[in-house]
Every structure is written in C-alpha cells, then in structure tokens.
Amino acid sequence: DVKVTQSSRYLVKRTGEKVFLECVQDMDHENMFWYRQDPGLGLRLIYFSYDVKMKEKGDIPEGYSVSREKKERFSLILESASTNQTSMYLCASSLPGVETQYFGPGTRLLVL
Amino acid sequence: KQEVTQIPAALSVPEGENLVLNCSFTDSAIYNLQWFRQDPGKGLTSLLLIQSSQREQTSGRLNASLDKSSGRSTLYIAASQPGDSATYLCAVISGANSKLTFGKGITLSVRP
Fold first, then answer.
1. What is the pLDDT of residues A47-68, one digit of tens each?
2. Interface touch A98/B31, C-beta < 8 Å
C-alpha cells in the first residue's frame, strides 16, 4: 500500500514565524503535490514537483515555497506565516502521468 | 479553466437507501476522473478512477459513471450505511500540466 505521511497532524504558529511542513512517501513516486483545503473553497493546488529539485507553481503559490532535495520528501515552507494561511494542508503523491494521487492525513495549521 | 461542480453541498438519507451523487465539469478534454472520500479532519481516500475512454467503474457497493461529452459523472452508492457518512469529492485531471481540479464535495449523512 502507498503510504504518504505528514510530519504533524496539528500545528500552532505565531504570525511571522517560518513554518516547515514535511511530507514523505514510500512508493518511489515521481510526482508530489501540496494542497490547502478551506471551507467553501475546496482543495487548491499550491505547488507540485515532477522530480527531485523540480517545482512548479500551482494555483495559489503566493506566500509559499517548496523544497524537494530527495525523491521521497517534499517540503512546504511558509516564509513568514500569516493568519490567512490558517488551513488544512494536504500532501499527495503519484506516478508519472495521469495517475491516481495518494493523499496524506493532512496537517491542520493554526496561525495566531 | 476547468471548473468542477458538485450539487448539493450536503445530503441526508436514511440507512438502506440507494443514492446518486452528481459531479459536472466544464472542459470535457479530461484524462480521467476520480471520486474521493474524506472523513472529518482526515486526508482523502481514492474510491474510483475512471479513464477518459471508460464509461464506468465499480467497487463493491459503489459505481461511478462518466459521460465525458456532457461533462458529467455520477457516483452511485447502493444500500447506504451509516459508515458511508463522509464528504465525497469529485476531481478531474486535465490540461497541459495534468492538474487535478476538485469539486467542493458533497457531505453525506446516512441516518440509522
């Protein structure tokens, strides 16, 4: 079974802090994705990566950056957290092409 | 720009009822369509994936159909159970970057 893990289930941070969200997958998937999910807005793609050291902007990249130094790990970075980044963050991975995406359990981030 | 719509946003049915969840999308040039399930506070679990060349997929009590030309999909749940209570999301892969675009989901409640 594909397993996608996220470093924290719940996180509370202060405005202005630098925040790292980590995602690890164990199925050697090339593709990895970061989404945020908000009530009434659904899931929105922040960034994705097709390979190590490669990244592409999604629909809402502002205020975020990513890092993919190893194939199995994809990190989402909030350079200076703001209250409007309070959200549920979901990581996913997939094989190349138009394949099923497998999701992690999510990290619920609260920025105070 | 691809848009995915799921109406209604919420549905409540008595246990044992057969039900249909609807999904529509604006751009019929899709690679595939997926149905996901999300339990409160959790990540997404893939239920069914229909390739663009297919008309339907079945898994247990679930049957998903796809009418690409009209931009519609349905998820049929037979003999609903309280354990089916969750949010069901429809998503399509389309576009040059093979992005996954989600609907906002339908929150299903099955009453004992």
1. 999 999 899 999 999 999 999 9
2. yes
